[in-house]
Write a structure and sequence with these properties.
It contains six helices and seven strands. By secondary structure, the protein is α/β, with parallel strands linked by helices.
């Protein structure tokens, strides 16, 4: 895939992996955007606002470059589950998700300061958890995997055993809806297939 070197405004190794697996050359420049400054409204506009804030914060410092920003939240009922700050909080999140269907929303933004270009989107995936025993919850919490993940689990990691099924994008649950992001990058002419097979040389 022929592509310029994109900036990912996130330190997430999972997002980096997904984009590199898609053949996109990526530079990591984490955003310093203040997420706490954004009040929660509804899931889709909230994650889109955060994604744009992150992308713009980095993009304004690199105006000639294309920047991808993203934000993922886990929602069950009226509650938004962030990253657990303690083992007790991780246990409580997993108990809440046990045997239930929850939603994962990821907002993404393509941003280029030169030309003031910004394009946003959000994707929802429904995730069904198996009913978890206290022994399973306790074992999983002690793997330490839950502690940098929204909702206290990683579908691409050990936490795959928690998930009975999903309805929607798998990569969205991991942290970035790759299909939609690539569609937008191709649609805007940021990447193309002119150099398919050449190793994705930058320009």
């Amino acid at each position: 895939m022929d592509a310029p070197r994109l900036i990912l405004a996130s330190a997430s190794p999972r997002r980096r992996y997904l984009l590199e697996q898609a053949g996109l050359p990526i530079e990591i420049i984490p955003s310093g955007y203040d997420e706490a400054s954004v009040p929660f409204t509804a899931p889709e506009p909230y994650v889109k606002t955060l994604a744009m804030g992150k992308a713009a914060e980095v993009g304004k410092r690199h105006p000639t470059r294309w920047v991808i920003g993203a934000d993922t939240i886990v929602v069950i009922g009226d509650a938004v589950l962030g990253k657990p700050k303690s083992m007790d909080e991780a246990r409580e999140m997993l108990r809440r998700l046990s045997g239930q269907t929850h939603q994962v929303f990821t907002g993404y933004c393509l941003y280029r300061g030169e030309g003031n270009f910004r394009r946003r989107g959000a994707v929802r995936t429904d995730v069904v958890f198996k009913t978890l025993s206290e022994k399973e919850i306790e074992w999983y919490v002690h793997t330490d995997e839950p502690f940098d993940k929204a909702g206290a689990y990683a579908i691409q990691g050990i936490g795959t055993f928690l998930v009975r099924r999903i309805n929607g994008s798998y990569t969205n649950v991991v942290g970035l809806p790759v299909c939609e992001v690539l569609e937008d990058l191709i649609g805007e002419g940021v990447v193309g297939f002119d150099a398919l097979g050449s190793g994705g040389a930058g320009r």
